[in-house]
Write a structure and sequence with these properties.
The protein is of the alpha/beta class. Among the domains are: 43 residues; 194 residues, P-loop containing nucleotide triphosphate hydrolases (Rossmann fold), CATH 3.40.50; 104 residues. The chain has 18 helices and 10 strands. Helix 6 packs across helix 7. The longest helix has 74 residues. The N and C termini lie far apart (137 Å).
Length: 520
């Protein structure tokens, strides 16, 4: 064994000397790195041969390399400090866990004692301990459920706090497990108009002429934008409101303000300071419409109290696009990971199942509506209050947008505008161009060919439909002309209408033209 001890002493002694040499080398290495006296001696020995550039580069190199070494040792010091703090925190955590374990042991002992005391009290009261235990468990479960509900609400609020589209995120959550309702699709356009009129009367005490209802429903076949104009108190806002009630999908009302200057008032805007999008109720309703097949109505109340072209111009252009896949509006320039489901690359797709209904008062407190808006919209004139009538009790109907669109397409197939009427319209077009320099545009003819069949399917006649389109789409343009110069041409135009369509057939157009003639 003596030989082993001699070997082990030499072996381990050599190893210890190696370890000492390591630390010794590190120590003297650091000393050598920061041996400033040697560096100054080098400058002294070699400075005689230095030029200006040599001195600049040598001083810069000295400072740079010295800064690198200082940074390295600084980082090493920070690392050592973090390790020390981590060790301390681990130690404190172990102490904390030990305290928790001790508290749990104490709680278990106290619970056992409590159960013994409770059992004695229950026995004295004449109740079985098992019955009391079940009652206590039931109360504990109810408290746990209430606590869980509160936690879910807290989690939802915390989740929404990270979203820039909070209201749209709520819509996504609402429709996560959405199931389409049963729709009352066994209808015709004619029965739809009659039921809507009777519902407005029986449930809301609102009286509308059947012609007004037919114009409204048929007008929405030709465009998504409907304008109700007339004197105050004729039920302009109430009509789309009661339509929402009738379709079991309340309308969204946006009260237009005089300060509206751009589309942000309608859709909202991104706040760069809060990093949140200020969403409007209109935006929320349009977004939600993409999830369902309901008839969705957005009311722009007093829409001409601000200039319509300012805040609705982009929507007017979008709704004119023939490809519905291009019905998009940019809300934000880029997308975030937690953006709403239906927001693609910051763009919102405008669903087709939304009708926009604007109400207009033509008085001194409002702006005039431009031809651009009138041409793209369908106008229903409400110039008189409804006459009261008795209506049978009529229940609301949940009608799908797909079914209504199908009825519109069926009407276009069943009741196309006759070739005779189209020929008369062409002759009238030539006459109006020659006498008044006003032409029928392609948009007007397209709307006419869609509206008139739907109006016939609603219970009206083709002549009435053509008459209304000419009055509101063509002859209305005369208001922008110099009426004093065309006044003498209006009477021959009335005579021409009588000869072309029949005496008194174009009542709406003739009444409108005669009113224009009386203005001068």
């Amino acid at each position: 064994m003596q030989g082993f001890f001699i070997w082990f002493k030499a072996f381990f002694g050599n190893m210890l000397q190696g370890i000492l040499q390591v630390f010794k080398g590190i120590f003297f290495g650091v000393i050598q790195i920061f041996d400033f006296s040697y560096y100054f001696k080098l400058w002294s020995d070699n400075g005689g041969s230095f030029g200006v550039a040599d001195w600049i580069f040598s001083i810069f190199a000295f400072i740079l390399i010295l800064a690198v070494w200082v940074g390295i040792f600084f980082l090493i010091g920070i690392g050592i400090g973090k390790i020390v703090r981590f060790k301390k925190s681990m130690s404190s955590n172990e102490d904390f866990l030990e305290e928790i374990a001790e508290l749990q042991r104490q709680n278990a002992r106290l619970t056992a004692e409590k159960e013994k005391i409770t059992q004695l009290q229950v026995t004295r009261a004449g109740l079985s301990y098992e019955q009391m235990k079940k009652e206590l468990q039931r109360e504990a479960e109810e408290a746990a459920m209430a606590n869980a509900a509160g936690n879910d609400e807290e989690k939802k609020n915390k989740l929404l706090a990270d979203r820039r589209f909070q209201r749209l995120a709520l819509v996504d959550e609402q429709y996560a497990f959405y199931q389409s309702p049963d729709y009352d699709n066994d209808i015709t356009l004619k029965s739809l108009c009659e039921d809507l009129r009777n519902f407005a009367c029986s449930h809301n005490g609102l009286y509308y002429d059947i012609r007004t209802i037919r114009l409204t429903i048929a007008g929405l076949a030709s465009t998504k934008l409907l304008i109700l104009q007339g004197i105050s108190g004729t039920g302009k806002t109430s009509l789309p409101y009661v339509m929402g009630k009738f379709f079991r999908n309340d309308a969204t009302i946006a009260s237009v303000q005089p300060s509206w200057r751009d589309r942000n008032e309608l859709f909202g805007y991104f706040n760069e300071f809060t990093k949140k999008f200020n969403e409007t109720e209109v935006l929320r309703r349009i977004y939600e419409s993409g999830y369902n097949d309901d008839l969705n109505i957005v009311i722009l109340d007093e829409m001409n109290i601000a200039r319509v072209e300012y805040y609705f111009a982009e929507m007017l252009s979008i709704l004119e696009m023939p490809d519905h896949n291009e019905w998009k509006i940019e809300l934000v320039p880029s997308s975030w990971e937690n953006d709403p489901v239906k927001l693609k690359n910051g763009n919102l797709v405008i669903p087709q199942n939304v009708w926009y209904v604007g109400t207009i008062n033509n008085d001194d407190s409002t702006f005039s509506v431009s031809d651009k808006v009138y041409d793209r919209a369908f106008v229903v004139n409400l110039d008189s209050k409804g006459v009261p009538f008795d209506a049978p009790a009529t229940e609301a109907k949940r009608v799908s947008y797909s079914e209504v669109e199908s009825l519109y397409r069926q009407a276009a197939a069943d009741y196309p505008v006759s070739e005779e009427s189209l020929g008369k319209i062409a002759k009238l077009d030539n006459y109006v161009i020659e006498k008044f320099r006003v032409a029928f545009g392609n948009r007007i003819m397209k709307q006419l060919k869609t509206f008139v069949p739907a109006y016939v399917a609603c219970g009206g006649s083709e002549v009435e439909g053509v008459d209304y389109m000419l009055a509101t789409k063509v002859f209305r343009k005369f208001e922008s002309l110099n009426l004093s110069l065309i006044r003498d041409e209006i009477r021959p135009l009335v005579s021409y209408l009588d000869s072309l369509f029949g005496k008194g057939a174009m009542k709406e157009s003739i009444t409108y033209l005669q009113r224009l003639q009386k203005m001068y």
